[in-house]
């Protein structure tokens, strides 16, 4: 069975009472959530004027990422589909307001009231059809369309995601662009290797190496610091492309932003930027001579053969008008 939770069961079933409490009580998960939330908040690029903002935490779970928002002085609304996760959040007395809702059916929020949105490891769930009535493209369309409406003009959204493959990444990005967003993908530590790839690459050993395999994986993963692992963020801006909607660079192995020279070696290590959502309009083919009288008469005759009502031909047909009467 796959280790990815979204491939095992729907979120409202996978995160039951037992899994929700186990998830929230893990010190390692708490640390990871805090670091990812801090990075997502940094990518929002909120003004440093001391004014608290109203933020949206999509897939808030038990409120671990919301605590980071509260520590930074912001108010927040948390949305999740798992009742068990929200029950744990209520027991922990988080400061945000909580909503039980399916993001694939749209966000039940007023227009233009949210100053920013974050999400940690939740958006990729929309790429799976958990029910016969679920269509990933339609669910992503409903989600990004409602998110665009509830965000204030110029507000940003930063979603940390674990796409299963390139197709899922492209599906998420294309759905966001169609909804009107500008933005792209930011990859932190692009040259590091994800944990799942490490396990997969070492899983092709023979049977006699099983014991050595389990020991090597445990040692390798324990020595590896999570903050240096590859992390992927979808950063979006509500509104047309502008200077403020440019996609920031991801962090490199030294903790600083990756330079163009470092990230140009491998296509998958580059920061993906899709900032222009406007497609150029198709231009009509016009000959050098322009629309002459012969061309117009030919078009009118073609329309008559089709049975269309076409004005009769006169001496004024195709005559160029003067600049003014």
Helical content, roughly?
25-40%
Mean pLDDT: 77
Class from secondary-structure proportions: alpha/beta
- Percent strand equals 15-25%
- Helix count from the secondary structure assignment: 11
Q: Span between N and C termini?
A: 79 Å
Work out the number of β strands.
8
What general outline do the C-alpha atoms trace? elongated
What is the string of SSEs from the N terminus onward? HHHEHEHEEHEHEHHEHEH
Largest sheet: 8 strands, mixed
Radius of gyration (Å):
26 Å
Unreliable residue stretches: 195-227, 259-280
Describe the strand arrangement of the main beta sheet, using strand numbers: 3-2-1-4-5-7-6-8
Please describe what this structure looks like.
There is one protein chain. Helix content is 35%, strand content 16%. Mean pLDDT is 77; it is low at 195-227 and 259-280. It contains eleven helices and eight strands. β4, α6 (136-150) and β5 form a beta-alpha-beta unit. It is elongated and about 85 Å long.
In short:
By secondary structure, this protein is of the alpha/beta class. The chain is built from eleven helices and eight strands. Strand 4, helix 6 and strand 5 form a beta-alpha-beta unit.
Which keywords apply here?
alpha/beta, elongated, 11 helices, 325 residues
Question: How are the SSEs placed, and which strands pair?
Answer:
Layout: H1 11-14, H2 17-25, H3 27-44, E1 54-58, H4 64-71, E2 75-80, H5 83-91, E3 97-100, E4 114-120, H6 136-150, E5 151-161, H7 166-179, E6 181-188, H8 195-201, H9 210-223, E7 231-238, H10 260-263, E8 273-274, H11 293-305
Parallel strand pairs: 1-2, 1-4, 2-3, 4-5
Antiparallel strand pairs: 5-7, 6-7, 6-8
Helix pairs in contact: 3-4, 6-7
């Amino acid at each position: 069975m796959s280790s990815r939770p979204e491939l095992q069961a729907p979120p409202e079933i996978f995160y039951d009472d037992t899994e929700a409490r186990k998830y929230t009580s893990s010190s390692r998960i708490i640390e990871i959530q805090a670091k990812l939330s801090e990075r997502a908040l940094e990518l929002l690029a909120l003004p440093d004027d001391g004014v608290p903002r109203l933020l949206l935490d999509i897939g808030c779970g038990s409120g671990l990422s919301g605590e980071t928002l509260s520590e930074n002085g912001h108010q927040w609304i948390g949305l999740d589909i798992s009742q068990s996760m929200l029950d744990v959040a209520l027991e922990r007395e988080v400061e945000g307001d909580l909503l039980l809702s399916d993001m694939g059916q749209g966000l039940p929020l007023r227009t233009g009231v949210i100053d920013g949105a974050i999400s940690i490891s939740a958006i990729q769930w929309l790429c799976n059809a958990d029910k016969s009535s679920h269509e990933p493209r339609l669910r992503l369309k409903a989600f990004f369309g409602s998110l665009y409406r509830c965000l204030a003009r110029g507000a940003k959204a930063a979603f940390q995601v674990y796409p299963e493959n390139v197709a899922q990444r492209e599906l998420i990005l294309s759905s966001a662009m169609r909804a009107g967003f500008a933005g792209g993908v930011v990859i932190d530590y692009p040259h590091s290797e994800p944990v799942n790839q490490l396990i997969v690459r070492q899983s092709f050993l023979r049977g006699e190496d099983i014991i050595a395999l389990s020991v090597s994986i445990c040692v390798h993963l324990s020595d590896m610091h999570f903050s240096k692992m590859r992390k992927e963020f979808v950063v979006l801006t509500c509104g047309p492309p502008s200077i403020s909607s440019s996609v920031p660079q991801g962090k490199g192995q030294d903790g600083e932003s990756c330079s163009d020279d470092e990230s140009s070696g491998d296509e998958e290590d580059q920061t993906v930027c899709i900032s222009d959502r406007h497609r150029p309009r198709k231009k009509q083919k016009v000959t050098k001579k322009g629309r002459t009288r012969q061309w117009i008469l030919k078009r009118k005759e073609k329309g008559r053969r089709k049975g269309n009502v076409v004005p009769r031909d006169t001496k004024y047909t195709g005559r160029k008008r003067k600049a003014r009467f």
